[in-house]
Every structure is written in structure tokens, then in C-alpha cells.
Amino acid sequence: MSIHGQLLLALDAGTTGARAMLVDPAGAVLGVDKRPIASRFPAPGLVEQDAAEVWTICRAVIDGALAAAGRSIADVAAIGVTTQRASIVLWDRATGEPVAPMLVWSDLRGMDEYKRLRAAGFAGWPQVPSAKLPAAIALSGRNAADLQWGTLDSWLIYKLSGTHVTDASAAWLTGYYDYANGAGWDAALLRYQRLPATMFPAQVESWGAIAESDAAVLGARVPITALIADQEAAMVAHGALERGDWKATYGTSGVLMAGTGEVPQTIHSSMPAEALAFAGGKPRFCVEGMVITTGSMIEWLCGGLGLFASPAALEAAAASVADAGKVVVRPSLAGMGAPHGKFEARGLIAGLSFADGPGQVARAALAGIAFRFREIAEVIAAALPVPEALPVAGGLSASDTLMQLQADALQRPVRRHAVREASAYGAALAAGMGAGLFGESDLKRLARYDAEFLPRVSRDEADAAFARWREAVAV
Question: Domains along the chain?
Fold first, then answer.
């Protein structure tokens, strides 16, 4: 693997947008470009994207980030790729062209297959690919033997390099991972669903020598030295790789993740063990709890209901009132994740009176997110030796009101990462480790925080508010 430049390029494809970020070896962000990714909703519970369009957008943000930094691809030492997890891309083995819509992770068309798999003794969740890959193949109308598939990370690496690979952090959440043997794909499940192993990507380490970009694609052959799922990449951004390290990300969805060390550990029925990163021959595991709709709920309150002109207007409205009165919001437009695992649950706005206005609704929405994170944090903190402060990032972490409500709800300090796009930043740092530019011991130094929020209410007040909210939104 040859390295010519000195900079690190991260490509981060999320659910609602893609971004590229150029970072120097000291951790300074030199350039960022981001663009939206559109989803289609052909029926209730179905969520699709166009994989070819996603690639076009990703290719554009790479050029955009380089231009923003005034640099060229020749200045790049290594590339890291991170994506949203558990979406399905299916493409023709011969032509490399997608043959069906990309099924996004939140798509629920796999509910029946999930139940069938569970009855047959296989692990999984309604959102994971093992519940939906047969539906994607049927949608394509093609023979499975003529196809390749992967999660979005695998598709982007394929487009960049022609290599068909994925890493453990993404593979673990497909439902196809061979959990019993700790590597490879579950041969029994492939036989059960009559899927050829040739459809599946090879599994590689999360950082190291993974592939090289095709010169015809980027204009140079650049080492791809990191491939890691988005939430796990955010853990890298915080230097949170060891047992008990934790972080919260407030994006389209919200995720509270904590490391469990070198042994997989399930701390709750709704929080099974996951792969954090496999690198240098060393496996690391984690657990997570998800608030399925956080940023997406804020966008819906603005665009869907039309209550606010923009998320910034919602933030201003929430900050304009001292409290939400008796208004409560359950942020569960697509189900309630951990620790409930009730995917049939839906959103709720309750407790309204003539005395309430947009400010109370806005503040209640942010408080509902904070309380959902408290539900998850209580489970994690009871099982793992977490630190006192909670490190946070993600687009919605820019809301000072939400961060203060979170500190109040948790009765803990909340430390906000200076780089909100922690997944992209973490992918860049992982690429730096994979290229040998620095090591894991440098990650804490490279994690910078620009604000700390301390609780402003007493524990008794916080506990009482949490109890009132839980009673009002119980499912």
C-alpha cells in the first residue's frame, strides 16, 4: 500500500444525506461538503432509495469537500467509508448496476419473514437485511445466483474500487453474520433462505489495508483503509473503544452506544451484542439503544405537520418558554426502540390546552427525546462502568435546548463534540489508523469538545418530570 498525500478523506452516507470530510493528521477539518439523499415511501412502512443516485451524490460530495479545502485527490493519503447500517443494495454481478430499489434500514416489509425466521430459530430484527433480502430479490425479478448484495458500505466500496467487501460492524447487523463462530456468514441461514454464498461480500477488518480506489473513478489510486458503520465510527470520533466508554448521537435517529470490551455482551433483550470494530486481529463489541425517530421527528414537525418553518424555528420556539406545561411528546413515529422494542408504537402529542402554543410543543418534543435517551442510559449505566459525563454529537446536538434538557434528564454532564458530524470524523480517524498515520492511543487527544452542559434542576425534579412523562406516554 503506497501513500502519497497526507490528508484523510471520509465518505459518510447517512439515511437523509451524504457528506465528505477532509481531515489533516492533527485532526483539523479542512473541508466538508454535504448533500441530501431522497427517500421514497411507496406504502406505509416501506422506505426506498435509489442506489445509483446515492452513489452519484457520494461522488459529488467527494469533489465538493476537496474543492472546499482547495485540495486535490493527490493530497489524500487514505479514505475511510462509513454509512447507515442494515440497508440492502442488490446489483447485477456482471454489469454492476442496481437491479432493485435500495431497501432502507427502517423499511418494515420484512416483518413476516422476521417472524418466520424467529420461529425457525434464527436471530434477527424486522429491520435487518435477513428479514428483507428475499423481498429485494423478488422485487428484482432476477435469479439470486446472478446477483451480488451488500449493505450501503459494501455498495460504495464496490463503486470506488470494484471490491466486494464489508466489515464486522456492518455484517453483524445483517442477521446473516455467523455469530456462533465469530466470523463469516451463517451457512444454515443461507441454506434456509436458499441464497448462494457468492452473493455475499467478503468480511475485512474495520481499518487496515482494505482496497484501493479505481483511478478511473477518483483520478488516482488511493488506499481505502477504513470501513466502519456510522454509529461505530462515531465511537472512534470520541475515542470510545474500551469497555464502559459511551456516546450519544443525535441524527435522523438517536443512538446511545457503549463498549463492552473484547467479549460480546447482551445487557437487555432489546440491546443485544454488536460488533464495534475488528482491527489488528482484536475484536471489540458494543451495545446500543436506539431512539428511532429523533431528527426525523423534528423534520416531520416542521415539514410534515407544518408547525414550524424550520428546525431552527423549532429550537427558537422551545427556547422561548420556560417549560412545556403539561404537553408531552412520544418521539416514536416509527416504533419505540430500546428498552421497549415495540415497533408497532406510534408517535404521540398529548396534554394540550388552550394555554399552550408552539413553544410548549417544541419544548415537549425535545424533552421527549431527552427522556427516551434517559430510558436507554439507565439500562446501560446499570450494566457497564460508564463515566460520569456523556459525550454527544450529531446534527441535532447543535440544539443547546436539547442538550440542556438531556443534562437535566440524566443528571449528568453532557459534553458536545466540536465536530457535529462525528461519523464522518470517526471514519477519517479510522482511515488514519488504517494507514498507520497514528494509533488508537491518539484518539482521545483528537476528540475535541466545544461545550459542556451541566444539570440545572435537582435530581428530585428530574425524576418527577421523567415519571410524569413515562406515565403519559406508556405503551
Answer: 7-227 (3.30.420.40), 245-475 (3.30.420.40)
